[in-house]
Amino acid sequence: QVQLEESGGGLVQAGGSLRLSCLAFGNLGSNSVMGWYRQAPGNSRELVARITVGGSIDYADSVKGRFTISRDDARNTLYLQMNSLKPEDTALYYCNLYYFTNRKYDYWGQGTQVTVSP
Length: 118
Hints:
This protein has about 120 residues and is mostly beta strands. It has strands spanning about 1-5, 10-15, 20-25, 35-40, 45-50, 55-60, 65-70, 75-80, 90-100, 105-110, 110-115.
């Protein structure tokens, strides 16, 4: 079982920055992929960025050049540095971790709210 705890959300003006953190507890597996997703009201949940144990990274086109994902496996922590924030980045941001052994294990945090004012 894995638990994920996000922190770092808040209210910021457009052009500002925030850093999200996700602390993971439990059996994380040896080949986990960790990522950030977001969901705005009325929209479906979408991938923001994800990173493998080996450091391969994917970003949504909408955040490329502004957001940076990183992970510190010694601290079981995932980060998302968000710069040049826009009002359209406003959403509930979720931390996700998954890995495969005999099947896929998929875990989500409760989410942290990010609100960007114009």
